[in-house]
Prior knowledge:
Elements: H1 2-9, H2 28-34, H3 40-43, H4 60-68, H5 77-97, H6 99-102, H7 115-123, H8 132-142, E1 145-150, E2 153-155, E3 164-170, E4 173-177, E5 183-184, H9 187-190, H10 220-229, H11 245-257
Parallel strand pairs: 1-3, 2-5
Antiparallel strand pairs: 1-2, 3-4
Helix pairs in contact: 4-8, 5-7, 7-8, 10-11
Amino acid sequence: MIFDLLKDLNQDCSFTEKINESSYIQGTNNLTESQPTQPAQQQQHQPHPVQRPNNSYHNFVSCIISEYDPMYQTLSENEKKLYLKQKITEICSEIEEKSDTCYHNYCFNEKIMKLSIIQHSLQLWEKKGNYISSIYYLNEYYKKHFVITHQNIAYETTAKNFPKVYLSIHGNRIKMIDENNFQKGNLNDLFDKIQLQNDIKKDMKSVYKMFLDPISKCKVDDLKKIALECNLSLKDGALGKNKVKSQLYDEINQYKLNE
């Protein structure tokens, strides 16, 4: 009723048409970009980092969660530590209480990426510990590929085709950076260079359940047949030669993992 009266009295006024949208308002483009068509449980884990000064953190877990949690950015400095502690506790609880959507559906090799190992590594953030299982898990939780960069070399941390986010470690501080054409390194080499513990005691390929049996049980002819079914070339593009057994094996597993 009140709005109808105001409209009659102010027919020449159109307040909404004069409102200029601020650059600080999250528009529909951001919502579309950060929330692809996926189950609701996955969507809530995928906000984009808030644009702000280049902050640095004492470990990877605090860096990732702080940058990707929108509530964290609204808090005062003396509130952030408690909130982060509560958030990590919440994630650890979800792994167990909502395991269907926060653990099992990630297709981890559960003999390697044990639930207890992930929870333990996440909870050690306050002690400034860096454990690779926590990064492997957060890749899935946020549907991002957190690539670690050190001395201009990039170390990938997942075989999934998630959008890449680069985490630079310098000394004991970690921050998110823009991509800068890094040379690609082997993750196994990184454990000897920085304070990052390989708490699963296996390489990155062991993190997920693979489509194929161990390579020793696979025949080349069978691999060729599966490769063709996956529309994968049997030729090495660079050399024009037939791909060797190990190439076919890795490419088929990679393809199936990202289906």
